[in-house]
Amino acid sequence: MNALGYALLGMLMRKPCSGYELTQLLEVFWQAKHSQVYPLLTKLEQDGLVTFVHVEQTGKPDKKIYSITDEGQTLLTQWVTKPSAPPVIRDEFLAKVYAIGLTDTNTAKRLFRERIFSFEEKVAFRKEEISQMQEEYGSELEQITCRHFGRYLLFQRKLKLEEEEIAWCHWVLGLLDNTKINATAKK
Amino acid sequence: MNALGYALLGMLMRKPCSGYELTQLLEVFWQAKHSQVYPLLTKLEQDGLVTFVHVEQTGKPDKKIYSITDEGQTLLTQWVTKPSAPPVIRDEFLAKVYAIGLTDTNTAKRLFRERIFSFEEKVAFRKEEISQMQEEYGSELEQITCRHFGRYLLFQRKLKLEEEEIAWCHWVLGLLDNTKINATAKK
DNA sequence: ACAACCATGTAACGCGTTACATGATTGC
DNA sequence: GCAATCATGTAACGCGTTACATGGTTGT
Fold first, then answer.
1. Which of A1, A73, A101, B139 is deepest in the core (most CB within 10 A)?
2. Do A4 and A36 touch, CB atoms closer than 8 A?
3. Which PANTHER family match (chains A, B) (predicted)?
């Protein structure tokens, strides 16, 4: 089985979820579209690692709520302690930074300011998620015994990294300013 | 054309490179194997965006050194200012953290200590890369006019994020210790 | 001896995205 | 009226990995 399969099992340890919900919750540490998640869940179900119940809703479409089975838990537990594949990062913006010399200073600044803006949105969103969790579960959240501990750790991590990204952008903007001052000074 | 194609063009702006070298240099912001890079370079060459010269070597296999063409530069320049696709991150370790509650505290600690170790190696390597660059190019490196400016920015960014990852792991280890203390205190 | 590095390439397969398909409800 | 949210699914395609193939040199 592949990493995404295990990731879904792991998320179902926290609480039973629909495929729709899993697709969204995935965002903190993986990216996958529903078109990948739904067929995988069907496969996990066929393999006896998860089960689902139909839930009828009014005013919303019906949904399938998936739960992890004992068999699924056994497999997942084995997987958790195995060595992990190195993280994969693919960031188009960074590819553009590589070639930033092609643009003028002002355009470069604009690009970094836009990056800051998009990450500030993420940070605000992340902080909300964290404080919501803290309100709901309190200090219990910081114990490994809490069902939401893992997710909480990932939120804190994401927040830190997003803030660091912003700090880096500001540092770059500083460099871009210096360049301009020196150029002006030389005149 | 896809993002990797542009990424390769961007790297060739800095200096002409072989496919082998490009595959390695890619590591700061993208991941791709040589089996993907070589055919893409062939395609870029057919499209007139890069050219190459055969370089015979003694004691080493011959290589092809690729350079970006004017046409390639035009295309790349257009691309740089376009909005970027959101970054993609897929990290198996983080998927495991989600389900960390399945393991005992000691195993969890071991996993985080291993993560710290692997990131400390990365940090050490990154610092070397940065100081090598600084020795070679000096303060010129911090100007947008420097050919290596973009790459330098990416190195600094990676270093920061890798250090932040380590700090997060230490924070988690602290939480795991607290849990243990409370459990002991309760006895 | 054996692994690692340099260097390029192809083929098969699996993972992931885009697009197509449906349909009710809520907010602007 | 139009977009967004909720909810699930399939099909086609493109991106990315694994494995196969070759072969000399350097270091342990």
1. A101
2. yes
3. TRANSCRIPTION REGULATOR, PADR-LIKE FAMILY, TRANSCRIPTIONAL REGULATOR YQJI
Bridge partner residues of A65 (DSSP): A53
Tell whether A143 lies on the interface with B, counting CB pairs under 8 A. yes
Structural domains for chain B: 3-81 (1.10.10.10), 92-179 (1.10.287)
**Partners of residue B13 in chain A, C-beta under 8 Å:** 98-99, 101-102
| Å separating the CA of residue B58 from the C1' of nucleotide D25 | 10
A60 touches strand D (CB under 7 A): yes
Mutation target vs A (from B15, B91, B115; most A CBs, 10 A cutoff): B91
Give the Cα separation of A16 and A64 in Å (integer).
Answer: 10
Q: Token pair of A47, please? A: 């393999």
- What residue of B is the nearest CA neighbor of A108? B81
Could you list the beta-strand ranges (E) of A1-72: 50-55, 63-68
pTM above threshold 0.85:
yes
